Every structure is written in structure tokens, then in C-alpha cells.
Amino acid sequence: MSDPTAMTLAEARDALKAKKMSSRELTGAFVAAIAAGRGLNAFITETAETALAMADASDRRIAEGKAGALEGLPLAIKDLFCTKGTRTTAASKILGNFVPPYESTVTQNLWNAGAVMLGKTNLDEFAMGSSNETSAFGPVFNPWRSKGSNQNLVPGGSSGGSSSAVAADLCLAATGTDTGGSIRQPAAVTGTVGLKPTYGRCSRFGIVAFASSLDQAGPMTKTVRDAAIMLTSMASIDPKDSTSVETPVPDYESFLTQGVKGLKVGIPKEYRIDGIPADVVAMWDKAADWLKSQGAEIVEVSLPHTKYALPTYYIVAPAEASSNLARYDGVRFGHRAASPRDITDLYERSRGEGFGAEVQRRILIGTYVLSAGYYDAYYSRAQKLRTLIKRDFDQAFEKCDVLLTPSTPGPAFGVGAKTSDPLEMYLQDVFTVTVNLAGLPGISVPGGLTESGLPLGLQLIGKAFDEGTLLRAAQAVETAADFKAKPAKWWTA
Amino acid sequence: MSRTIKGQNLIKGSSGEWEIVIGMEVHAQVTSNSKLFSGASTAFGADPNSQVSFVDAGMPGMLPVINEKCIEQAVRTGLGLKAKINLRSLFDRKNYFYPDLPQGYQISQFKDPIVGEGEVTIDLKDGTSILVGIERLHLEQDAGKSIHDQHPDQSFVDLNRSGVALMEIVTKPHMRSSEEAAAFLKKLRAIVRYLGTCDGNMDEGSMRADVNVSVCKPGGYEKFRADGSFKHLGTRCEIKNVNSLRFIAQAVEYEARRQVEIIEEGGTIRQETRLFDSKQGETRSMRSKEEAHDYRYFPDPDLLPLELEQAWVDAIAKSLPELPDEKRARFIAQGLSPYDASVLVSERELADYFEDLAQGVDAKAAANWLNNEILGRLNKAGLAITEVPVTASANNAIIRMISDNTISGKIAKDLLDIVWTEGGDPKAVVEARGLRQVTDTGAIDAAIEAVIAANPEKVEEVKAKPKLSAWFVGQVMKQTGGKANPAAVNAALKTRLNLPDEG
Amino acid sequence: MSVDKDTVRRIAKLARLAVPEERLEPMAGELNGIFKWVEMLGEVKVDGVPALTSVVAQKLKWRKDEVTDGGNADALMTNAPGGEDHFFTVPKVVE
Ligand SMILES: [Mg+2]
Ligand SMILES: [Zn+2]
Questions:
Q1: Domain range for residue B484?
Q2: Quick check: B93 pLDDT over 50?
Q3: Are A215 and A176 in contact (CB under 8 A)?
């Protein structure tokens, strides 16, 4: 075995099953890679000791023939999932040294399947951002750099620590959360696979909430197969989340061999927006041809309200966030300002000191759009637009089984390049946000490299609860793209 | 229901008469084992923060899951209020900051409550009844408790109540006097206690009332009832958390007079929240709540719409117990006065006691016995009906012995005193102590002869003043130790003293 | 609709966020940029369109009325920045 960290999740699973190596060896290799990769700032908290203890326990279970589906496989967890006994920060100062006395359902499902926790990955503060630059723990760097350049690029966001860690082989796979594109956009710009399941497929219990009606956890992996394996373990029917669906979880891996013959793939014409780089459009067209050559039928569809999705999102998400983040008040946990004069001073300064600029901006937007006199013009109208956007998809899916679009309007950009204008940053999610508004599953698969050598992603969008078909199509794209490129390991130097 | 305002309900101001208009918002704690959205216990009086789940404490990532019992209790109450049950309702977040509100919002129902319009009949002392319209009933979470007197410069927060289910019951402004306001709350309390949906315990805060008071010139209210426009009514003030029936009456009286004085001095009433100070007997502005509140209600994205099936609602409707109004009508049909019937149904335990007591005997006699003898003794002892030392069936036996002439009414009272303090079976006590009524004419005649012999002058007097025969009756009763049958004594005396038929 | 400095001050107060005086004006500018962009939603006719209440077709879960939680005041207090005798403490609130 040359470098165990370069393996896919499926390969490592098979190697452990075949007893070609132990979880201890595998985990040890990742612990070393994480230590060597600190320059990427992908992790907020490393849990090497816990990881090795979990690996030993896995090795015992493997020896006893009691291995779970993810037995002994080291994963990275976005630091938005509460992990019992391990600090959880949401990349915010306001959570201080919060150590949850409980475990999120998704991570509990992973541990129940035998997975090993390597640590908690960096993210945009409270998952608000598309570049991982709003983290209170500093920006994360993309392992990829443009050909011949030393400039640091962003890994996307908000799950930027996870995307960077997967792309740099600091873990086999990672968890992410996606509210407007936070799994798919970072996956796209790091040459990895990111799957946002149907709203309600994975429990939100124990995940620090950003926007409750949009948030959804999902896997970030090296391959489509790995995403299927991860989702099978992450998803569950959870009595602790009122919005988690009652549908049984299938074995998603079983869909991958089914091919796309006869599948109708829709191309939404409204996604051909002005100002998208030519190589993004070219790759999109190429992907349609790949699917066609494997037996799929390409149909043009219309999603007429597409251009309203982003502004709708920037009302709904901040509104929910302004309320979800009210609990960070310095009373029961988290940061409390020093010597407050009175309770109002305690609230205002704790929150003023604890939240970063982007979070504060969104809290203010959300407070404003819900406030007396503005609710109807903003929030209520946005929720009606959501109904229209969802109807668009319902109608499109009468004509096709999956949709194919670009994942992002372009490749990874430079650190600091878009921080001055919030709107420019928000545009990163223009292709992904519609999917959250409609509650649908979406996946980003690497399509290839730009001329300057940076990865670009292709997005597939499925019908609600039809992750199976989505994965079939994603597998077809992945096979055709045959994306084998890896970033040069500049960070270990 | 239009009605004239009684003189005592009018406030006389310098500019003439004013009328009071009252609406109420009652928070009733739902009777359930666990909280509305978490599995923590609702038991009263536990150690601080010992009945708090991470959900109730608003910890990161925690989510609400609704308690089916609380939904059922709200529907049950709605049916008891003859209200419309909404098969689809929504939970909203009411956003504000307070140390005992851990999530930074209260989950409540704003636009689409689970229960819509209904009505409550209240019976007044003068025998009249009025209808008070119910605007709505919705489910919401209670807040925790802040304790301000434990430390010189800190408040202590206990979240045991945080997340306990409340029903907020909102009336229309249909009450016109402090008596009506108190009577409404009393009736509402009786209804929820009959239904078993709230224990109605005001001391423990299971039932709290916010009272909205405004004043208007005579005629304004009638115009409001005619076209529904609030412009005919005065500006209202909300008096928060008035926690006893007595305080409600005091608070309304004080507040209405305060408003009249302000208006008559040329001022205007500011819509505000006020607090009733029971020690001073006055209402005070709550400065801390003055700051512009903008609750930013919006549907809680952690919860889906609450949808009920009509068949499920129907099944609950079938399981409702007989409620106070129906019971009252039945009691009246059995011969009770409307007033007695109202008093008896006001508490479920009292009505139950009465029903046992009246088993197979005259209802009116049973009601009198309960009102005069049992309640009188309980009052004196400061006991509740649930603590009565003599069972309803024992009292029923006493009433039966009166009606079949086994004992006299006078002896019956003595008998009750005996079993009240010493216990025992009334029939056995009557036999053991020889309390049976004497109907044997020989014994009565002997007693009459003894009284006549001892009082010859009275015999002369009674001839002139037949009314004196009552004195003779008393003396004969004394002679027989109260056991003589008064009717038999009367008849025998009449013959013996040769008195006219009407004496 | 345009957001001014006073509006920012008012919503910051509602949101209990200490925004320094010198940040109010720039923040108003940033918010205006966003609200100007959002104005395009006004183009869409939404009469008769119901506001979305649940994004996927699903029934609300109902829980049994059982005591399954609580009873762990120690765990509840472990992260508290202010606490005494199982109470959370805050600067005295005057009613
Ligand atoms: Mg109220
Ligand atoms: Zn309320």
C-alpha cells in the first residue's frame, strides 16, 4: 500500500475488510497528514487521540466480525455538528469554548456505523459564506492553485474546511451542510464530490442551525460511490427532528451500476446567464454529450423564476437566521461580555463581540425583513416566490428525471478577492440556491479543469427523495469525466 | 347579546356616566406529563433547572417535537368552549429577548390558531346570564422564571417552566363589570377543570389572566357590537398577570376609574401594559415592557403545519364529560333554583358530591342540606369540598331519615354534628343514642300534660293570644329531648288547648 | 424603501447587537445595496400564490406524552458563563 490517505472511502473500506491494513494504520496516516497540512487551516479542532482510540475499537470489532458499514474509516466533521464532549464552534467567537453535552443525529449515525472522527473542520461563521473567509478561526486555503501561481485560493464555503480536507487527502470523506450551496460549491471548486440530499433526508438534530427550512447535511467525498456510501449511513428517520422524513433509507450504493440509459436529463435554459466564463459553459455542454452518449435523452426545460432565487434566498435565510441566532445571548453558554452594566448591555455587547461582520449583517437583514411594516413586502413575498420556484421544478420534472447545470459560475477565486462586495460573493450560489429553496437533492461532480488548471464542477438536481436516480446520473458524469487530477502538495513543504 | 348596564356598573364622572368594557387573555397550563416540545417533566415545585431538556434551554442544534397530548387537550378545551376547531394551524415564532426565554423566541400560534371562535355563558348573582364570545385559543410555550430577590445585583434564572404547554384563551371585549370579569374567569376555570385540560390552580400559576380594560360613554359599546368597529370603544390598557378572582375585580375597578379621571382631566389614554399591585390595590405602568416591541412573528421553520383529522376531533367530542351548563340545566329540571344550580356546578367536585348526595331523595332538600349544613360547616372549618369528613352517602342517609320521619330536622343537625366530629354510620348512631322521632301520641300527651301542669298562667295567656302556642311546642320538644314529631305535637296541643285552626 | 442610519440603529437594538456608532452609516449603505437588489422580487405577480409552509410533502411528527428528558441540571450548566446553585445568573433585571 503506497499512500493510504490517497484511497477513496470505498477502497479503504475494502482494504480494511480484506485485513490488508488496520484502522489504526489508516487513521495514523491521516493524523500525520492533518498535522502536515495545518497550513491549509482546514481543521478548527483536531481529535487525534479520540481518532486513534476509535480506530483501535474498530480494529477490535473487525477482528470480532462485528464491523459496521463504515467501520474504522476516518472522517472529518464540519464544526457545525455538535459532538458530545468535543468543542463545537460553528467557527464563531460567540460559542466560546462550547462543549456539547449531546451528539448530533448524523454524527451519531456515523459512529454507530463504526466511523472514526479525525476532527472538526473549519467553515464560514455559522455557515454564512461561500469562501470560508468569515470564520473566526481564519480562512481555509484551497489545495488547488492556478498553474504557475503561488496565490492562495479559497476552498469555497461554507463547508470549506471539509472540501479542503477531502481534496488534500486529510480525511477519507467529510460531512458538510448546505443551506444555499455550502456543500456543492466548495466541492466544485476543490475537485471533489458534494451531495446535498432532499430536505429532511438527514436529521438536523444537533446541527447548529443557520436557516432551518433550507439547512441540510450531506457528504463531501472523493467519488460518487463514496457519497452514496456516506449518505446511506448519514441519513435516518429521526424522531428528534419534526422535519425529518419518514421514508426508509435505501442502500444508495446499489443505484450506481444502473446506468443512465433511457433517463431524461433536463437542461434548464434560464441557467445560461450572462457573464459566465466560456469554459464553464463548454464543460456543461460537454457533460450533456457524455450523458447522451451513455443513452440518456437530453431535453430543454424552463425554470422561469430562476433569477429570483438568489434575492429570495437572501430574505428567507437571513430572516430564519436572525431568529435562530437569538439564542446566542451570553446567558446559558458561549461568550459573555466582561462586566455588563445590565441585561441589555450583556446581550448587545456579547453578541456584538461574538458575531463576525457577515453574521451581523445577515442578522440585521433578517431582523429588518421580519419587522413590522416590512414583513409582507419582504418575507411574505419571498415565501410566495419560493412556492413559484418549487412549482417551476415540479413542472420541469414532468419532462425529465434529473437536471444538469454548472455548479458554480467559475472556479476558485483568490483569498480576499470578493470580500469587499457582499453581492458579488452571494452570486457564487446562483446555480445551487434554487435547489435549497425547493428542498430538492443536488450533487456536484468534478467535470474537469479550467485552462489555468483549476477544477470545475457539474451539478445534477434530482426529484425529492430520488437520490438514487441522482447518483446514477452522477456516476455516469464521473465515469465520462474521468477526473484524475490532484493538487500539488505545496502545503506540506 | 345586547343588554342594559346596571346602575352599579356605571362610573360617575364629572362629565357624566362612563361604561367599562373588558376583554381577557387567559393563559391556562395544559395538563400533561411532559412539555409541549420536549420530553422534560411539567411537575410543579422541582429543584431549579432539574426539569429542563437541552431543547428547553435553547442549546445549539436542538429541535422541537410536539406532544400529542397537548394537541388533544387544546382541541378538548376548544370543544368545551363550543368553538371552531381549525383542522390546519401553524406555529409561529414570537421573537424577543429576555433571560427566561432561552431560544430568543416563544413558539406560539399567531395567524392560524388551533381553535377559533367560541362562547362561554356566565351566570350572574341576580339570576341573569350573559354570553362572552371567545376569539380564539392557541397553543404556546411558557417561559422560564427569573428570580430577582436572591442576590443584590443578580437575577437567577430557572428554566423548569420553560417549554411547558399553555393554552392562551382570548375573549372578545364582552364583559362590562368587574363582577362579570370575575364570573367569566371562574366559569372558564370550571370548564377546563371539568374537561381535565388544566388544573386551574391560580396559586401555582396554572391559570393567569391578562385583563384588557377600556371605558366609553354610554352607547359606544352597543355601536361596537353593531358594526364590530373598535373605534367606538376607548383605548385599552392591558393589566398583566392578575392571579386571583378577587384581584381581577379590584384591578378592573381601579383601572376604569383611573382612565375616567385622565380623560375628564383632558388627557388621553396611552395603550400600554400595566401591572396590578395587590398590596396597594392599584395598577402601575410596566416601564420595562414599554420599549417598542416588534415581535417579528413568522412561521417556525422547525415545525410543519399542524393538521388534524375530523374523525379524530369527533372522537374527542364524543368523550367530553357533561359540562357545567348542561349539568346546571339538568339540576334546574330536577327542581333546583337557577342560583343554587349555578353554585353547585361551579366546581366539579361540588357537583359530584351533590349528585351522590341527591341519590334517590328530593333534589331541593338535598341542595338545601348541602348549602346550609355541609357548606356552612366546611366554611367554618376552612375546608374544601374535597376534604369533607362525612361522605355524601352518609349525608344521603340522614336526608332519607328526615323525609321518612325517622328523625326530626333538628335532630338531623345534631346527628350531622356527631358524625362530623366522631364519625360513624348515621343510622347506627340514631339507634344507639335513641334519636328516633317520637310519634307515639301517649308519650306526647304526657309531655303536654307536664308542661301545662307546670305553667298554668301560660295556659290562660294562650287562650287570649293563640300565637303563644309556639312556646308550648318548644317546651314539649324540650321535654322530649327534641325527638317529638313537631306536627304531632302541634295537633295534640291544638286539641288539648282548644285553639282555633289558624293560630 | 431605503435604510438610513436610524433604521440600522433601531434594528440593531431589536436584534440586541452593539453596532458602533461609526459602523451605522456604512452598514446602512451595505444593506441598501442588498435591498436594492432584492427589489426585483416586486416584478413578480404573487396574488393568490400561497406562502410556502413546508418544502416537502410530509406530516408533522407527534410525540407521545412521556417524560423522557431533563433531570440533568449539571450537564445543563457546564457551559454557563454565569451560574450559581443550578441557576443561570444575569445582571439583575428590574421589572
Ligand atoms: Mg397575549
Ligand atoms: Zn401568550
A1: 441-497
A2: yes
A3: no
CATH number, domain with residue A183 = 3.90.1300.10
Answer yes or no: do B198 and B287 share one domain.
yes
Distance A151 CA to ligand 1 centre (A): 58
Residues of A in contact with B102 (CB under 8 A): 327, 331-332
Residue A482 has pLDDT above 50, yes or no: yes
Q: How many domains does chain A have?
A: 1
B145 CB neighbour count, 10 Å cutoff: 17
Mean pLDDT, residues B179-195: 96
Q: Tell whether B261 and B153 lie within a shared domain.
A: yes
Tens of pLDDT, residues A433-459: 999 999 999 999 999 999 999 999 999
Q: Which of A364, A375, A460, A356 is nearest to A135 (CA)?
A: A356
Active site (catalytic) residues of A: 78, 158, 182
User: Does some domain include residue A386?
Assistant: no
Q: What is the pLDDT of residue B7?
A: 64
With CA atoms as reference, report the closest residue to B255 among B266, B247, B243.
Answer: B247
Cross-chain Cβ contact B296/A371 below 8 Å = yes
Q: What is the pLDDT of residue A253?
A: 97
- B246 located within any domain: yes
pLDDT at B68: 98
Ligand closest to CA B143: 2
- Which residue in C has a C-alpha nearest to residue B53's C-alpha? C70
Residue B303 and residue B333 in one domain: no
- ipTM surpassing 0.95, yes or no? yes
A 375-404 residues with CB below 8 A of C?
377-378, 380-388, 390
Partner C contacted by B47 (CB < 8 A) = yes
pLDDT score for B503: 41
**pLDDT value, residue B480:** 83
Same domain, B311 and B328: no
Number of compact structural domains in chain B: 3
What is the residue-wise DSSP string for A296-322? Answer: -EEEEE--TTGGGHHHHHHHHHHHHHH
Q: What angle do CA C61, C67, C69 make, to 5 degrees?
A: 85
Of A88, A320, A329, the CB nearest to B301: A320
Q: Report d(CA A194, CA A227) in Å as an integer.
A: 7
